Amino acid sequence: MARSKANAKPATQAPPIVSSAHLVSPHSAEMSEFEFGLIVAGNAFHRWVVHCMSAAGLKDLTALDVLVLHHVSHRARDKRLADIAFIMNVEDTHLVNYSLKKLQSLGMVESSKNGKEVTYAPTETGKGYVTRYREIRETCLIDALKADDALNHDIGQLARLLRVLSGIYDQAARSAASL
């Protein structure tokens, strides 16, 4: 059966760039390429947030620490530990709790108790580092991106695809856990 030109793959197509050739599926080699890209991009993103926050003056934080500080600062509303972990899709709340305690000890985050609930908010010092991070991000990342409307549209589409795929990975994880 002949392939249509739209579905035909060039005879000289390079093999997929993957980290684990033994996982490449004949049904979707592209998924293995995506996973390798995700690994590389994830590590680059984590390295970026650590270096950006270090340039802002707050050193010796892990990527999770930086991301927790950003989320605690998000929309100027106090956050509960469970909500932070849920939104960030971190299954082990102990990891988020450790970051919160570390940020509290550095004076970046403060906790308050409302009845039985403990909530977290950035301190003025924490807000200052987040503001400085944003300035450095604009200079080093956003200005270098030089995004036009078309690229910004593509980035938005990619963000939506990543959210869809994260749901598929979560469902696949639940399926695997039930085996």
TrEMBL record:
Tell me which InterPro entries the record gives. HTH_MarR-typ, Trans_reg_MarR_HTH, WH-like_DNA-bd_sf, WH_DNA-bd_sf
Q: Which residues form the HTH marR-type domain?
A: 61-126
| Matches recorded under SUPFAM superfamilies | Winged helix' DNA-binding domain (SSF46785)
Q: Which superkingdom is the protein from?
A: Bacteria
Put simply, this protein is called MarR family transcription regulator
Tell me what organism the protein belongs to. Answer: Hydrogenophaga laconesensis
